[in-house]
């Protein structure tokens, strides 16, 4: 009898299963390592982008801070200037307003006041040029004012119902144009400070 000799090694199913398991573990390890490498480069790119954005925002913050400092300093200056102006220009205005109103002719209208450090500018509407001269004369005689200067004199029509060709609608009578005058009044500061007593 011939002995049955098999020189080929026996294949064990366990060895094949373990090779397959090792192969899967190796593939999984390579995939995990690939994922880590990909995340590393993504994080590195994101870090570079965020660093650039941070530098830009830092520069913007510094610029805005410098603009804010300029505005704060400017508002302080203007506030200090305002306080200094109020301290210099601390005079009662009611007597001046009363005096300018009391001296007005019958059909004249005081339209506007503008107060400055040592003067007051008023805008008045008059019917005739004679009324302007008499009002200026009364202002010059007033103890509240040391000097009176006429600025601009302009005339205007009272009728607001004019057409584009300059003719009035439903014109029942002729109207005389009125005069608008800007007058600058220089105050007598001593008289005003003493309350109208010399």
What does this structure look like?
- This protein has 198 residues and is α+β, with helices and mostly antiparallel strands.
- 52% of the residues lie in helices and 19% in strands.
- It has helices at 13-88, 94-102, 129-141, 189-193, and strands spanning 109-115, 119-126, 145-156, 178-187.
- It has a 4-stranded antiparallel beta sheet with strand order 1-2-4-3.
Task: For this entry, give a set of tags.
single chain, 198 residues, alpha+beta, Threonyl-tRNA Synthetase, Chain A, domain 2, 2 domains, 4-stranded antiparallel β-sheet, 52% helix, rod-shaped
Quick rundown:
Helix content is 52%, strand content 19%. The protein is α+β, with helices and mostly antiparallel strands and 198 residues long. Strand 1 and strand 2 form a beta hairpin.
Span from first to last CA?
160 Å
Q: Radius of gyration over alpha carbons?
A: 47 Å
The third-level CATH topology of the largest domain is Threonyl-tRNA Synthetase, Chain A, domain 2
Shape from CA axes?
rod-shaped
Largest sheet: 4 strands, antiparallel
Report helical residue fraction: 40-55%
> What structural class do helix, strand and pairing data support?
alpha+beta
What are the segments in which pLDDT stays under 50 over at least 5 consecutive residues? none
Q: What is the N-to-C succession of helices and strands?
A: HHEEHEEH
